[in-house]
Amino acid sequence: MKKLNLGCGYDTREGWVNLDIAQIEGVDVIHDLNQLPLPFSENEFDYVLCSDILEHMHDYPRLLGEVHRVLKSGGTVEIRVPHYTYSRAYADPTHVRHFSIETLDFFVETTGRPYYFDFSFSTLSEIRLTFLKGLVKPLIAPLVNINRATLLFYEQSFLSGLFPAENIVAKLVK
Question: Which domains are present in the chain?
Fold first, then answer.
């Protein structure tokens, strides 16, 4: 299984192709993600990790299109982005985007708007919210993450104001 870790920073992973803009120990490919296309062939990877990177991109849909291009059919991209209720999502001056659990629907054939982009993923196989450590995490996270309906209820109710989420973790399958 060939895996790509986009925008890895210090989170380099053994056995993966680690890509970052910075020349950090463990980075295999130095590349600016704002400069597309990605330096890889079509259908090259089985798994792509985009952890804490999309929120920094001015044109993240274009980057997702490139991820789609380099993924093999049936391949998965795992995405981790800050949830819009997370205070640090706004505090970080390098963040240019904020995300809801519905944001990634736009890139999925069955739930999105396939006319927006020239690519789409076949399914959203997983989506969940993470919460900061403390009392909220063990009490709220299991309830919020029961299913899609509970995630939507959380976002559309007072709960998201009372118990801000930290991240969205999602998996899209090509």
Answer: 3-130+167-173 (3.40.50.150)
